[in-house]
Amino acid sequence: QVQLVESGGGLVQAGGSLRLSCAASGRTFSTLAMAWFRQAPGKERDIVARISGTSGNTIYADSVKGRFFISRDNAKNTVYLQMSSLKPEDTAVYYCAAGPTLYNIRSYWGQGTQVTVSS
Fold it and tell me: Is 27 left (phi over 0), alpha (psi -120 to 50) or beta?
């Protein structure tokens, strides 16, 4: 079993930055692929960024390329999402997720953290 706890959400003005963190426990963190999803009101939960275990390969949604950066610190069992040049349409609940591979990454979920971008 893997437990995921997100932090770092909040209210920010358009053009600003935020860094989300997700602390993991319960399994060997470095073997897990990690991802950030987001869900806006009335919309589906979409993947934003993902990062593989030991190799650190990354994949981003087109909507965030060049603005968001996912990274991980295996010594701290933590994955980060650095968000820059934020837009009002980035407003959503952001969820951390984990799974065995980059393409099978919905095995475990955090509780979510709210990000609100004001115009």
Answer: beta
Asked if the model's pLDDT at residue 54 lies above 90, the reply is no
pLDDT at residue number 8: 97
- Is residue 111 a contact partner of residue 5, using CB atoms and an 8 Å limit? yes
Q: How far is CA 101 from the centre of its chain?
A: 15
pLDDT category at 28 given cuts 50, 70, 90 is: confident
CA 49 to CA 59: how far, in whole Å? 6
Are 71 and 51 in contact by the 8 Å Cβ rule? The answer is yes
Q: What angle do CA 29, 44, 87 make, to 5 degrees?
A: 85
